[in-house]
Amino acid sequence: MTRLQRLWLRSYPTLIFYWLVFLNRALALDVSAVDKNGIAPPDGALHESFQSTELAIHDQVAAVHGVYHFKSEHTEPLELTCTFRLGQREMVDGFSYWNGSEKVVGEVLEKQAATQVYQQLSGVRRDPGLLEQEGDQFRFRVFPVAPHEEKLVELSSVAPLAMREGYIEYLLPKENLPRGNAVFSLDAELTDSLPIRDVQTIGFAARVQQISPHDFRVTFESEGQALTQDLRIRYRLATDDYAMRLTTHRDDGGDGEGSFMLVVSPKAAVVQSDVIGRDIVFVTDISGSMQGTPLEQTKQGLQAILKQLSPKDRFEIISFDDEHYPTFGQLADATPENRRVAAGAVSELQVKGGTNIRDALLAALDTLKNRQPGRPRAIVFMTDGQGDAPPEVVLSDVRARDSGVRIYSFGAGEGVNRDFLERLAEDNRGSASFVQNGSQIESEMERLYTRIAMPLIVDLALDFGTLPVSSSYPKRLPDLYRDGEVVVYATTPRTRAGTRASSCRAT
Is the whole model's pTM more than 0.70, yes or no? Predict the structure, then answer.
């Protein structure tokens, strides 16, 4: 077992323990310093001299171990502050710091408790080394950093990596990279139960080495090099058929609480005959907040989507402001003539009054109320989410229909109600996408539709058999699309010595 594989095994249980935590900002390192009087030292008095990142990705779970060296050139003791922001679904697994040759394992505390303990310890000249947690921000403070001392900080984290558009990707943002003449190194190992292919590095020229079809190594080192782009490692999986991968862990030598992550992946090559015809309603906001570029870009995005509809599909377009305006009044076959009529209606859309989200969504659900077994039904909902009715009312009324319709939210422009649109999508087994730049709405709409354009398996269910499960997420499984996946996290209770869990299956 390699060093990076041991890193992954140590970090994996943290992922399952926090499987309900969804953090949405990129990891960024913000460093500052002040002297004992609270005055910032001259530029360059404290700088990062070395940074290394060890990365182990196995079956789409990334375990990261970062090491940061901060060198003081000041003649007075300094207080060092580092602020970390975690990436999507990433969570802190541990941190430590060094006093000379002594390694000290720090504690993660909520902001109020961390502030109190820090003040008590720093007041008696003891290095507190606390990682202060506030939401998705983690702040590390050390006092004192002695004159000319080099302070070493280590931070570990773990995150599941989603498959998007056929690629699994790990991103190290440019904001987290060292500046100036610091040495930077990256050592990554990619392993998977399925064969790995098409490993790419974007933003840096790394060495990619294939150890086996299931194991790749990526290494990179720079000194004084300006790293101005995000560093991305991405890869595909090679599979001839649908695949299920199960990653398990049990504490206390195999007799403690257990956890697992199940990933259902599509086959690599999908042909049109594999795709299921579906019923889909596009609901688009034409209220005053969509004035100008947002509406024009939305119209162009809808025109592009209409061209991608499958002959097996049926569709409707509903625009709304204070009222809602259906194009056909019912689902229409995606014939060339119907698509031409819809394209003409889209080109005539104009901004009007308020934003009656509730009635527009309920009208779309009514359009899709007649269900055909095995035929997916979906709503693509394009808005800023700022409606006349309270979000809780809309969510409750949609939930009361219990329709089984998937809802994909697309938030466009500034001031988007992200919480509402994310909850709407999650409650209805869809996904939410957002774009702030009005000029990018068209391209992002096409990207969203491309992700959901080919449903392969719908109405998935997970049968745990006789396996006792304490909790699982999500409660209702999403559908499986081309270039997508379905991921389930679950925990199991402590077992008696000598007993083992039974199998589970997805249907």
Answer: no
